Each structure stands twice: as C-alpha cells, then as structure tokens.
Amino acid sequence: MTLYAALGAVEQGFVYGIMVIGVYLTFRILDFPDLTVDGSLPLGAAISAVAITSGVNPYLSLLFALAGGFLAGMVTAFLNTKFKILHLLASILTMIALYSINIRIMSGPNVALLGQDTVFDLVTKAGVPSQYAGLIIFGAFALLVLTFIIWFLSTELGQAILATGDNPQMIRSLGVNTNTIIVLGVGLSNGLVALSGALVAQNQGAADVGMGIGTIVAGLASVIIGETVFGCKTMPRAFIAALLGSIVYRLAIALALGLEFGAFRFNPSDLNLITALLVIGALITPNLKKRLIQR
Length: 295
What we know:
Order of helices and strands: HHHHEHHHHHEHHEEH
Radius of gyration: 19 Å
Oligomer: single chain
C-alpha cells in the first residue's frame, strides 16, 4: 500500500468515523438497531449539495444537513415509541421513504458540486496542498464531534440517554420519559450520519442517491473492529475506539484491495466480502485469544 493510499484511507476513516460515532450511539448506547442511516447519509449529502448550489455557505449547509438527519431519526424513533412499530421495521420504512425524499430534494438522482465552494477552500486558500485538505478538515470535524459526544453524554441529559439504553425500567421509575430520550438519541445519531454524508459529498464533488448503500454494514464493522482492537471499558474509550475502528477498517480495505495472490486480486466489487471477513475476524479473535490463554 502506497503512502497516498494510506493517507486516503485515514481521510476516509475520519469522515466516516463521524457516521460510526452515530451508529455506536444507537446500537451500543441506546440498544436501538437503526437502519435509517442508509438513508440519512445521502440525505445529508443531498441537503448540503442543494444548499451549496443555491448559494449557501458550505459550512452553513452542514448545519442544514445535520438538522435534516436529526428529523429523519426522529421519525424512526416516533414510529417506534408512539405507534409501537418494531425498531428495525420502523427504520426500514424511514430508509425506504428517504430514497424518494432524497431524489425529490435533488430533483434527480444526483447533484454535482464542480466549481462550487466547499469546506476545503478555507484550508487550500491558506496554502495547504489540496491532497492534505481533506485529511485536515475531516480530522478536525471528527475530533470536534468526538469531543462533543463525550461531553454531551457526561451531562444530565446524556446520562439519561445512557441509563435509557442500560436500564429503561429503572430510569422510568425516576420519572424520566424514555420515549422522549429515544427520540432525541436516535435523532442525534442520524444527525451525525447526515453530517458525515454532507462532508463526503463536498469531498467527492457530488451527492448521489445511492451513496448510502452499505453504510450500516461499514458502521457496524468499524464498531466491532474498534471494540476488539482498542477495547471499550469506559464510555469515552468506547467512542475513541469507534473512531479508531473506522480508520483501521478503511486501512484494512485499502490494504486488501492492494494485495495480489498470483493471478488473484481483490476488486472494488469485493468490498462486501472484505467487510464480512474483517467482521468475522474481529468477532472470533477474542474467543481465540481466550482459548490460547486457557491453554
């Protein structure tokens, strides 16, 4: 793997790490399996792209994307808490609806951002080479989101989210409305995913309705790899591990795509296979390690 490919993988690890933090919030903290993210990532990209092409500041467009993702997550949580629809089914329904909504927002399947201002202009105008602009911007946003989520979960409201996922019956006995907490938590999760999508769109120079396919798989793979490699004994460490897991996941994919075994080599179409192998390896490693220690 070349240095350029490694830097690109780290760059992708940072930007998709924001999405992974959102996935960790629902799957591990709230114990809420949420497939909405496959629709909220392109939703954030669509909102940001349309806003930029309409003359909105690219940084302000990120806030619009965050708000759009938050609303999408709220819909999923509302269907689950108010109408008692199973969380998986509720998220699938929202994801399906978002496909049409994203096309409606973009007035087509995609929107190009060629020639438009992006968040990277601030760095490149300061004299930073364009090939490092994404790494700096994505790294800054990832660290900002990581710091925010660790701080937020240490507040009274954040502690209510942690308690809701850990023991909802107990927190309800203290007078906390767990339905409201779930709506807030799932909304925040999808808001972060949409923010990630908006940054990806500005980096790629286009927003596409299909760019969210496989998002949840990549998110879960990053979470599992992060937990296996870095551990998750405390809440701050768990979120740091999730972000680092995203980087390791992207580096592993870049490394796998560059490997050759005689006439055989992996193609980009083998991405799902590589992801499955990485997750399987991350899941069986602790058990193998335990057996070796026992021996």
